[in-house]
Amino acid sequence: xxxxxxxxxxxxxxxxxxxxxxxxxxxxxxxxxxxxxxxxxxxxxxxxxxxxxxxxxxxxxxxxxxxxxxxxxxxxxxxxxxxxxxxxxxxxxxxxxxxxxxxxxxxxxxxxxxxxxxxxxxxxxxxxxxxxxxxxxxxxxxxxxxxxxxxxxxxxxxxxxxxxxxxxxxxxxxxxxxxxxxxxxxxxxxxxxxxxxxxxxxxxxxxxxxxxxxxxxxxxxxxxxxxxxxxxxxxxxxxxxxxxxxxxxxxxxxxxxxxxxxxxxxxxxxxxxxxxxxxxxxxxxxxxxxxxxxxxxxxxxxxxxxxxxxxxxxxxxxxxxxxxxxxxxxxxxxxxxxxxxxxxxxxxxxxxxxxxxxxxxxxxxxxxxxxxxxxxxxxxxxxxxxxxxxxxxxxxxxxxxxxxxxxxxxxxxxxxxxxxxxxxxxxxxxxxxxxxxxxxxxxxxxxxxxxxxxxxxxxxxxxxxxxxxxxxxxxxxxxxxxxxxxxxxxxxxxxxxxxxxxxxxxxxxxxxxxxxxxxxxxxxxxxxxxxxxxxxxxxxxxxxxxxxxxxxxxxxxxxxxxxxxx
Length: 566
What we know:
Helix content is 34%, strand content 17%. By secondary structure, the chain is of the alpha/beta class. The strands form four sheets. Strands 1, 2, 9, 10, 11, 12 and 18 form a seven-stranded mixed sheet that branches. A seven-stranded mixed sheet has the order 7-6-14-15-16-13-17, with helices on both faces. Helix 1 (24-35) links the parallel strand 1 (14-20) and strand 2 (40-43). Helix 1 runs parallel beside helix 20, helix 3 packs across helix 4 (131-150) and helix 8 packs across helix 14 (369-380). It starts with 13 loop residues before the first strand and ends with a helix.
């Protein structure tokens, strides 16, 4: 885990920029600004930097560094790694996914790899023909076209909707991904329920939605899951997610940024030209002045820090995201995160597949198309899903460096489970511990249906003899990381463009206000305050482990600096 070695923030000091929050995006902004010669102070509430992108020894007495919250990398541009001189790398996965199913009285599944000839056979064995494979190739061929055209724009000034449409240069593809609910396209391309479900999951990870949601939340989520790197590939961070934030913290500190952990920001005051940031430490309260404030905190948290003068209309106006079609704030996470350490991978009922293959990619559980819809409707009505959908992957198969020598020698493996359709509303006002346990048991029971031995027999135990299993709900993330409602994207994702002036957005979102010549609006980091910028996941083009909001906020600030110098 990243930790600061810098002294506490100097009371009454004046900085060019104060950054609120030491997550990976805040660290990216700090590194860019410090390298540009600005005086930078980063304030982090916790005793370490990294936010949700950290590695930790989660189980007492066991030497294994798990990526405790976020766990895969897709959206991080190589340009940020190069610009900041990061000692960080990722590894690709030869297996994309495995989805088990019981059909016609036998256990089988769909294993998708980077080998097209294998995939053709796998689809045919599951569905009885080549139709679904050929549809898969066409559908993801269009997704790849979008990725190639859209991904480079994420670190450029925000294009308008019409400009991005011209870049995509295919009206049918634009309509399928940006205009109509993704369920229509999935149903048009695919007939098999399992195949449909595998495609739909990319639209639901971290987003409480369904295939035909008129708000198009699912389309925005799908887009961010398939454009990464211009290929859509999801990669494994070598050394765990904490290796990235360790490298970012080192880069920022080497450039001269001050990183102060254990400093909880309690208020931000600004007149648009100068700002004052109040913070609290174990020793007491302090204040620092800054010409600019960059917030890596969620927009709702920033609004609270700004106090009574903060405006939800201003903070949400940069994208329209984070509001439902009725105009009310909607910030709610919907995931169950389960970290596990196993003595060995479990045997599968589908004997044709080696567990080392099945768990090397994304292992889909209870994620057929109809099952996903049923689980959503149950959760939306306030009921725990009877068959909770989830997906699992094993980091240590691709990157064994996260295991200590003893754990590696004994053959231990990590499993990361990400459960869908577990909105915060299911836990609020309840016996949260009991609901957490009930949902975890139901989720693992769905996995157990596809295993040929009890999962409990495979779990390692910690120094106290307890199973190595850690469960996090949206409310845990809200407490641990100050993510409102446990929303891992801080609020609903936005399409990566600025709406054309005077036009309504698909899904009923309002047009974006703001002068496109303003650097904050140009880079999608506006808050409504002239010297307060978003640099976290709540910015336009935020979400995921990308560093893009930090990069874009730094670019906007440097443009403001250049303008003021003229």
